[in-house]
Amino acid sequence: MILGVGIDVCGIGRMEEALARWGNRFWERVLSEPERRSLAHRVDRATALAGRFAAKEAVVKALAGAPGVGWHHLEVRGAPRTPPTMALHGPARALAERMGVKRVHLSITHDAGVAAAVAILEGDGVGRSPTMEEAGGESRSLMPEEAGGESRSLMPEEAGGEGRTTLDDEGKERS
């Protein structure tokens, strides 16, 4: 039984800009240590990052907004020319278990300057999806669109309830 579906598209140019502006800080913020190791050899870092970014966003959408889930709670795994998989950690895993998710199907593609990903959550239908209140009233993104050209959010509120971390135009962290 399908328990959730998510899709996301990410411009590769957007990731090129983020890497040019914030360098490894952005790379490390979005990717887990195992993901960074598996992509260390890639010349096309922005393309690889855009695919992982889109995959994580797609899974968040499939998890009904995934309250309390951050970048490192979602880990894309896979070797070249093999289908990608998604490992869920911490709050992402707990939410998936509560929903009755048994398998995460993931597809990532790159073409024409964009990366796209689709995530399908499969389970037996025994669990339950979060209520709208539990999901914060609406589906949310790990990285919302820029608001008025001011600071950009790089991380959602973490499970510990701390404030969102942002970088200003000079790349300095702000809370």
Notes on the protein architecture:
This protein has 175 residues and is an alpha+beta fold. The protein has five helices and eight strands; from the N terminus they run E-H-H-H-H-E-E-H-E-E-E-E-E. The protein has a three-stranded antiparallel beta sheet. Strands 6-7-8 form a three-stranded antiparallel beta sheet, with no helix packed on it. A hairpin with a 7-residue loop joins strand 2 and strand 3. Helix 1 (12-22) packs across helix 4 (45-62). Its EC number is 2.7.8.7. Belongs to the P-Pant transferase superfamily. AcpS family. Residues 4-110 form the 4'-phosphopantetheinyl transferase domain. Its cofactor is Mg(2+).
Instruction: Please mark out the parts with pLDDT under 50 across 5 or more consecutive residues, or reply none.
Output: 143-175
What's the CATH class, please?
Answer: Alpha Beta
Main beta-sheet annotation: 3 strands, antiparallel
> What is the CATH topology assignment?
Ribosomal Protein L22, Chain A
What number of domains? 1
Instruction: Report the β-strand fraction as a percent range.
Output: 25-35%
CATH architecture: Alpha-Beta Complex
EC number: 2.7.8.7
Region (Disordered): 126-175
Cofactor: Mg(2+)
Catalytic activity: apo-[ACP] + CoA = holo-[ACP] + adenosine 3',5'-bisphosphate + H(+)
What's the arrangement of secondary structure elements?
Elements: E1 2-11, H1 12-22, H2 24-30, H3 33-39, H4 45-62, E2 74-77, E3 85-88, H5 90-99, E4 101-111, E5 114-123, E6 152-153, E7 166-167, E8 173-174
Antiparallel strand pairs: 1-5, 2-3, 4-5, 6-7, 7-8
